[in-house]
Amino acid sequence: MKKFLLSGLTLWIGSSVLGSGALAQGGGARVYVAYCQGCHQAGGQGNKGIFPPLNKYVPKILAAKGGRQYLANIMIGGLQGPIQVSGVKYNQVMPAFSQLNDADLAGLLNYISTSWDNKFPKGQKTYTADEIKAARVKKPNAQTNYKARPKTLK
Ligand code: HEC
Known about the structure:
Blueprint: H1 2-18, H2 28-35, H3 37-40, H4 58-63, H5 67-77, E1 79-80, E2 83-85, E3 88-90, E4 93-94, H6 102-114, H7 129-136, H8 142-148
Antiparallel strand pairs: 1-4, 2-3
Helix pairs in contact: 2-6, 5-7, 5-8, 6-7
Heme C (HEC) binds next to helix 3, helix 4, helix 5, strand 1 and strand 2.
């Protein structure tokens, strides 16, 4: 009995310590599992025609003109409108995640930019919390993001 109580307590302390700050760097995996994986899947493979893949695709967004900023903006404001990803059509709603803090969103973006087969394009550094903070100023939403989507992505 005592043992159960103790391990429960350890879990509770563990999760509250990890709750926010620890997500800052390297915690992107946890944010991904909690907020993205349900749609984009554990291996980032997505679901053809419904949820676009992130594996082998995020680097293309990062490399597109304005793409790095766009990627941060869709985390904050979501995305809505018909798009094409690697020749496949999608037209659903990507929710906004502005409720997550700057450090968590930066960690998340670094996670999806470096997981599976993905890596940052040459010369691009990891996202910082400050970069996310700056992106919030313009209050991007699903419509402004749709308009600003790099035209080379299709
Ligand atoms: C409820 C399902 C859902 C969740 C949860 C979700 N997405 Fe999406 N995501 C979508 C859909 C749907 C689209 C395509 C939107 C469209 O058709 O306009 C999309 C598009 C994307 C794109 C590609 C945008 C483009 O222009 O090609 C990226 C990158 C992305 N999501 C990342 C994420 C990340 C990271 C998370 C976790 C914070 C996440 N998504 C959570 C449904 C989801």
